[in-house]
């Protein structure tokens, strides 16, 4: 079992944003975390990566919690933020090296993988540049490369599809498939529901800080036969938002 | 539009006042008084040696007055958002710019008057200009500045490529000729010519602007550059948020980095060392204080004063470097890397030790070069080592852990 979130209550202040959330991400599985703006996706992610401490409930990653062994817990996670965040003073090459040092990766093997990824995302001629000056899409690619050179057991990807060109989206989905194959779990939050519908194995639908429903697309569809055909339709009807058409 | 400029000007002046208060703090004012006093004394002493035979001085004064025309730009106070929000009222912008023009005009002319007054004794001594002719020369200078200001406002509008490229150099050239005539031939001639030039510029401006579009992008960029210049100046004395944190690659320092260990235990050291060398903020601080300290140390001679200075400067540098520890706190990866806070602090302490040791060695060298006896140099070495140890191992830990 990769990631288990059980009865998580949490948020930024005294007032909880998340009210009793439970879900799992199994090894080799891509789980889509779906929800409107303010539904609690980012808050959930911040709890999992350890930026926030749960008020109640527990987050376990392969039997380790953040409280018992923070290093072992963090070493299992690779994170791709929604907005690219870079160290201003490090070049692209140094960002990769920093990641390798921080995760204690074997330099030779990691560089082999890095060079492959750099080629895929067409960054291989920019190793000596400061990525802080890149365009948003290119910065996002740097984040992707940094995350995918690790041997993480859980990848957490926050809204990857906005800002990436279609080719990069395709390559990213391919990368996700590769790490799934070696047994890593992936938790991905997104608004791009058509892509999610095709790519994700299971879905966790968040609404106002609660898990509205979860399961595979077929399961969700079977549970709500009147809600519509696509994930988009189902999601909109479940959130109870009336649309003006 | 009129109110808008007044409103912005007030805000701008309030901000400038705040910075000026920071710059002209008590110590700086005292230092400045000594500096200006010393300069004035030197100038007046030098004036006693000057006579009509030193004709080269006329050329220097001429160039000084000519170059001085460059002081003072148009403070439009335009902001990037204006290109969107004021665009629909482009016609009315002229009213706004006229306000900017007037404010900048007064400011620039005050500087010009000071400049002429400063060079006045030289003109009297060397060029034998006196009385009303001096006034004529002053008015010449003001009229030349006026022509420049008018042209600067004209340049806020979109001009033809030729006009844009040549009008400013041409105005500079004409100003040079007029000043030369004023100093070499007659101030009255230059007065007439300068007033004519100012008139021509004004006529051109009034003819041109009603049929021209505002060069929004250029104007906003110009204003941003002007403000950046001001902020840079203030940044020499105090922290200005608008200038902070530029990063330079500084490839020539890469050899330093090769000395440092590269493994998981020193991952934060990898980050800290690069941030320290390439970010201008903290490296500038260390460099400035080290140079000033070394110079003071060298000139204060050997003895207790020098040693006290050494201790104070090392403390100052170490103390001001502490906030660098938190420099990467707003970057999420700093927190999610599988690295302990203990290691992070240890890495930072190592950086602190390295930086302070370099400073310490430079101070020791300055002390030694001031002909200090070797015993004292050795003594200072021990003092430095103890101080750095206390700062790093005890004080930094106390403050940061």
UniProtKB/TrEMBL annotation, chain A:
GO molecular function terms attached to this record: ATP binding; ATP hydrolysis activity
Keyword Oxidoreductase annotated: no
Family matches, as SUPFAM superfamilies: P-loop containing nucleoside triphosphate hydrolases
Residues in the signal sequence: none
Swiss-Prot/TrEMBL keywords: ATP-binding, Nucleotide-binding, Transport
Pfam family, any one: ABC_tran
Domain ABC transporter: 3-233
Glycosyltransferase in keyword set: no
UniProt cross-references to InterPro entries, sorted A to Z: AAA+_ATPase (IPR003593), ABC_transporter-like_ATP-bd (IPR003439), ABC_transporter-like_CS (IPR017871), ABC_Transporter_VariousFunc (IPR051782), P-loop_NTPase (IPR027417)
Full protein name: ABC transporter ATP-binding protein
UniProtKB/TrEMBL annotation, chain B:
Transmembrane region(s): 20-43, 55-75, 96-118, 172-198, 282-299, 305-325, 351-369, 375-396
Keyword Transit peptide attached: no
Record keywords, A-Z: Membrane, Transmembrane, Transmembrane helix
UniProt feature coiled coil, ranges: none
InterPro entries, per database record: EcsB_ABC
Keyword Transit peptide listed: no
A GO cellular component entry from the record: membrane
Record-given protein name: ABC transporter permease
Organism of this sequence: Lactiplantibacillus garii
